[in-house]
């Protein structure tokens, strides 16, 4: 039987327990970053809220895409994962504000996705799959046992990414 571990706003979870499923609910403009190491069977899921940790806030690096990805990679390596095996997938980054006057001003979802690609390139990690953008929220499940990533858009069906 699977055990659900909820990954809340500004949080990350790393697990090697094959019974666990890491879940980030209701990703709107937030970005879910899933990393899986198939050799060590280690999974990590980040639920980042904002793109850049501009002031170097150390209290919670997971709140930001840039520092959150770096912290997640470090946590996975500390748990025995090897970067060369990491499979990275991105989910979320929707632009939830539909007003044309506001959406261009904030575009937090787009900025979150852009920040992720920049940081991952800097870390020499490639994105193996992504379901990002649009204006619909998503829930993502990462199965520790297999690395399978399932995405469900609000009002939609589950799909494997």
Automatic annotation (TrEMBL):
Which reaction equations make up its catalytic activity? L-glutaminyl-[protein] + H2O = L-glutamyl-[protein] + NH4(+)
Q: Which UniProt keywords apply?
A: Chemotaxis, Hydrolase
Look up the EC number in the record and give it.
3.5.1.44
- What domain of life does the native source organism fall in? Bacteria
User: In this record, what's one Pfam family?
Assistant: CheD
Describe the task this protein carries out. Answer: Probably deamidates glutamine residues to glutamate on methyl-accepting chemotaxis receptors (MCPs), playing an important role in chemotaxis.
What family classification does the UniProt entry report for this protein? Belongs to the CheD family.
Q: What is this protein called?
A: Probable chemoreceptor glutamine deamidase CheD
- The species this protein belongs to is Thermanaerothrix solaris
């Amino acid at each position: 039987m699977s055990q659900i571990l909820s990954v809340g706003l500004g949080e990350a979870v790393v697990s090697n327990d094959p019974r666990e499923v890491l879940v980030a609910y209701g990703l709107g403009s937030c970005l879910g970053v899933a990393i899986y190491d198939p050799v060590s069977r280690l999974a990590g899921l980040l639920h980042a809220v904002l793109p850049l940790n501009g002031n170097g806030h150390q209290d919670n690096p997971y709140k930001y895409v840039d520092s959150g990805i770096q912290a997640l990679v470090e946590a996975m390596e500390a748990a025995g994962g090897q970067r060369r095996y990491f499979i990275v997938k991105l989910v979320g980054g929707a632009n939830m504000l539909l007003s044309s006057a506001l959406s261009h001003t904030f575009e937090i979802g787009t900025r979150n996705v852009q920040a992720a690609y920049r940081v991952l390139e800097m870390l020499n990690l490639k994105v193996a799959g992504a379901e990002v953008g649009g204006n619909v929220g998503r829930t993502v499940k990462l199965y520790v046992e297999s690395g399978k990533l399932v995405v469900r858009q609000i009002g939609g069906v589950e799909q494997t990414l």
